Amino acid sequence: MHRSSLLLLLITALVALVGARPASQSLTPTPPQVYETTDKIPLPNVGNLQVHDPNVVYWDDHYYLFKGGWHIPYYKASNMSGPWTQVGTVFDVESVIHQGNRSRPWAPTTIERNGTFYCFYTLSTHGSRNSAIGVATSSKLDGSPWTDHGALIRTGQGNGSDVWPFTISNAIDASFIRDNATGKAYLNYGSYWQDIWQVPLSDDWLSIETPAKPDAVQLSFIPHETFRPEEGSWMSYHDGYYYVWFSHGKCCSFDVRGFPARGDEYNIRVGRSRAVRGPFVDRDGKLLLDGGGTIVYASNHGAVYAPGGLGVMPGNSSTPDILYYHYLNTSIGFADEQAQLGYNYLKYDNGWPVVLDGIDIKSSAAIISRSPGWWSLMILSVA
Ligand SMILES: *[C@@H]1O[C@H](CO)[C@@H](O)[C@H](O)[C@H]1NC(C)=O
Ligand SMILES: *[C@@H]1O[C@H](CO)[C@@H](O)[C@H](O)[C@H]1NC(C)=O
Ligand SMILES: *[C@@H]1O[C@H](CO)[C@@H](O)[C@H](O)[C@H]1NC(C)=O
Ligand SMILES: *[C@@H]1O[C@H](CO)[C@@H](O)[C@H](O)[C@H]1NC(C)=O
Ligand SMILES: *[C@@H]1O[C@H](CO)[C@@H](O)[C@H](O)[C@H]1NC(C)=O
Ligand SMILES: *[C@@H]1O[C@H](CO)[C@@H](O)[C@H](O)[C@H]1NC(C)=O
Ligand SMILES: *[C@@H]1O[C@H](CO)[C@@H](O)[C@H](O)[C@H]1NC(C)=O
């Protein structure tokens, strides 16, 4: 190859590399001591919906999004970027559980089994361990009211809250997983206090198995600290691994006059295990029970702040898994109700989930594999 065409190739490669980065000069100037300006984490695909702790289910060619709020509102769209239209609410009356604000459950997680939808929801109040996780079911996603089956677990007060580990944990932020070999179902939950836990569900998924002596395991914990900001767990399964995801850091109530130290705001972390019950380790081999957790998504570009409250929608042969979450857009605002829906496709690098840049699955996969190492190798071999 001619020296000139080699030079041209080199320039093309450099342009491609630079071109792969979003233009940072178009962003609002932000104080770097507060907002992370890194471009190593890609921007989200904008979901065009204000939501805290989103939960998305793909069903009958549509996305259904559930969120905490008055009677648990839910929405429908044919694209993750919207437009979303509200279908209705899970409840038409207060939850039967006497805990927290009975009209305003938090952090729903909805699962479908054989035509029945199970919505696991939380009742609690901020800064309190007086909490409960309940479940409601429906065979329709058309706005008609669901059947409320009441509490599966309670902490702080109420029936069953005197049973370990409900004596030390916080019954919020339910997530769900089935053992891929046996189909057995588990409920994951927890937050600050003693972080994330898992209990087996009974076969009807409406109660936990053996409530007087639950076979509970702790999934994540930060020892040697009194402040343990891990919550909002999710569990996904991909190619032989179970992944525990959670949000780490300060979630809400940001005040423009007093942000937490950079990096102490919400970010999305993961650990994995071959067994649904763990133990889970992060990419560095650190146990999640020892404070481990690999950051998969965090504040970026000075534009995205405190992403968390995530879920993972399983993909198929043509569509990758989708990581979705809420985040604050620094040019929109920091109030909790201004949180935005964001999402990214995932790829797996040696079995570790990595977020992809962009909405086009094929070109985003190309961008992420375009590392400087790859180009220098190619130029070397051409030379
Ligand atoms: C979803 O919406 C985005 C943004 O409007 C668009 O680029 C994309 O092609 C849409 N995807 C599908 C599957 O319609
Ligand atoms: C419960 O939440 C609803 C909706 O946010 C609110 O209107 C109501 O005042 C709350 N009730 C109590 C007792 O806090
Ligand atoms: C699924 O639901 C149908 C209709 O309700 C029922 O006949 C069938 O037994 C169910 N299958 C399983 C595996 O539960
Ligand atoms: C308390 O919980 C146990 C176990 O789930 C259940 O059998 C019992 O009926 C509950 N008692 C009340 C008063 O709800
Ligand atoms: C096991 O995982 C595969 C692939 O995700 C899925 O198709 C299958 O339904 C799973 N089996 C159970 C019992 O969950
Ligand atoms: C895979 O899922 C997407 C939605 O995420 C859907 O449009 C597509 O039809 C599915 N493909 C297959 C092969 O099931
Ligand atoms: C943030 O909001 C601004 C103004 O509405 C918009 O131009 C930008 O695309 C948004 N960015 C993200 C990542 O949401």
Question: Any descriptors?
Answer:
disordered N terminus, five-stranded antiparallel beta sheet, 3 helices, disordered C terminus, 383 residues, binds 2-acetamido-2-deoxy-beta-D-glucopyranose, Tachylectin-2, Chain A
How far is it from the N-terminal to the C-terminal residue, by CA?
Answer: 7 Å
Summarize the biggest pleated sheet.
5 strands, antiparallel
Superfamily at the CATH H level? Answer: Glycosyl hydrolase domain, family 43
Multimer state: single chain
Pattern of helices and strands? HEEEEEEEEEEEEEEEEEEEEEHH
Q: How is the CATH topology named?
A: Tachylectin-2, Chain A
Indicate the CATH class.
Mainly Beta
The shape is globular
User: Unreliable stretches, pLDDT < 50, 5 or more residues?
Assistant: 1-30, 366-383
Instruction: Provide the CATH architecture.
Output: 5 Propeller
* Hetero ligands: 2-acetamido-2-deoxy-beta-D-glucopyranose
Number of domains: 1
How many distinct helices?
3
Strand content: 35-45%
Alpha-beta classification: mainly beta
Radius of gyration: 22 Å
Report the mean per-residue pLDDT as an integer: 87
Q: How many strands appear in the DSSP assignment?
A: 21
Helix content: under 10%
EC number: 3.2.1.99
Pfam family, one: Glyco_hydro_43
GO molecular function: arabinan endo-1,5-alpha-L-arabinosidase activity
Enzyme class: hydrolase
Describe the structure.
The chain is mostly beta strands and 383 residues long. It has a single domain, classed as Tachylectin-2, Chain A, CATH 2.115.10. 10% of the residues lie in helices and 37% in strands. The chain is built from three helices and 21 strands. Strands 1, 18, 19, 20 and 21 form a five-stranded antiparallel β-sheet that branches. It has a four-stranded antiparallel β-sheet with strand order 2-3-4-5, with no helix packed on it. Strand 4 and strand 5 form a beta hairpin. Bound molecules: 2-acetamido-2-deoxy-beta-D-glucopyranose (7 copies).
